[in-house]
Each structure stands twice: as structure tokens, then as C-alpha cells.
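step 3/5: co-fold with adenosine-5'-diphosphate
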Amino acid sequence: MKIGVYPGSFDPITHGHLDIIKRAAVLVETLYVAVVANPNKNPLFSVEERSEMIRREIQGLPNVKVDSFHGLLVEYVKSKGARIIFKGLRAISDFESEFQMALVNRELEPSVDTLFLMTSPHYAFLSSSVIKQVISLGGEAKGMVSDFVARRMKEKQAQSGTPIKKVKSG
Ligand code: ADP
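step 4/5: write C-alpha cells
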């Protein structure tokens, strides 16, 4: 049985992530979208909140499961009985670090391989951090994240006391 893992921060999930999830899901029987619990990063959303948002976005994709992990990715992948790590590639800038990580992971666990899916051109500019910036400056993230995620981001910014400035239109 082919099992794949798509790891990431997903802070929060964007249309770019969702595009990779849909494309990876048709290549395997089960796909785990695995939220990385990385204490070194300072995420906007908790692992539970990120997982819950992903769950809403993947409704209608029966072979996709949401999970989280900390520690070594290859250990997590093995624990799921998986042999494929999916990664999305945007610009050349993604390549260098992803290339290094893929080689390290293969060194650690030769039975696990990384498959790269090239971004869809429409989402090539999208990252969670750019969307957080847009929202924090009062902009709209239409076409970048779902309406639900955009709402959750605004609520979160309001809770954390960050002033959301209104961008004048026109
Ligand atoms: P980011 O915060 O940069 O969006 P994540 O850690 O959440 O990064 O990303 C998880 C995975 O999804 C990575 O493999 C990343 O390269 C990929 N990814 C993120 N955004 C896109 C996109 N717009 N198109 C293709 N792949 C993407």
C-alpha cells in the first residue's frame, strides 16, 4: 500500500498547500498531512488550530488524513509505514534547502524518498508568511486562503492585540 507524508508548518494552510495536497493525494492510497510541531518557530496558530483548519479544507478528500509530529521527519514517516515524503517547490530559493534536506533524510533513512511537486504557477508567490503580512496590514487574502482561514487569521490578530489597519481602496 502506498502511503505518503506531506509535512509542513501550515501556519496557516494556503491554496498553494491545498493544491499540493490534491495532487499528492492521487498518487498514493493514503496521504498524511503532517503538521510540524517546531518549538523554534513562533507560529501564529497552535498545532491543534492548524490541524483543525487543514481538516476543514480537505473535506471531500477521503484518503487524506491530518496528523502532527515532532522530532525527526524520517522517524515519523517510518512510524506511518510510509516511504514517500511530498514537498512543494516554488521558486529557485526553495530548491537549495529542500535539496539539502532530501539528501539528509535519505542518508538517515535510505528506504524513504522525497517527491517534489512543482507549484502551480498561480500559487508560485504564495507562502503562509506573506499572507500573515498581508492580513496584519489590513489587506485581503482573497484567492490565497479560504474565507474560513482568512477569518480565523483576523480573529487571531485581534486576540493577540495587533492592530489591523484598514487599507483604503481606490
Ligand atoms: P510556508 O510557510 O513557506 O508556506 P510550509 O512549511 O507551510 O511553508 O510548507 C510546507 C510545504 O509546502 C513545503 O514543501 C513548501 O515548499 C510547500 N509549499 C508552500 N507553499 C507552496 C506553494 N504556494 N506552492 C507549492 N508548494 C508550496
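step 5/5: annotate
The helical segments are 15-25, 47-57, 73-79, 92-108, 128-136, 147-159.
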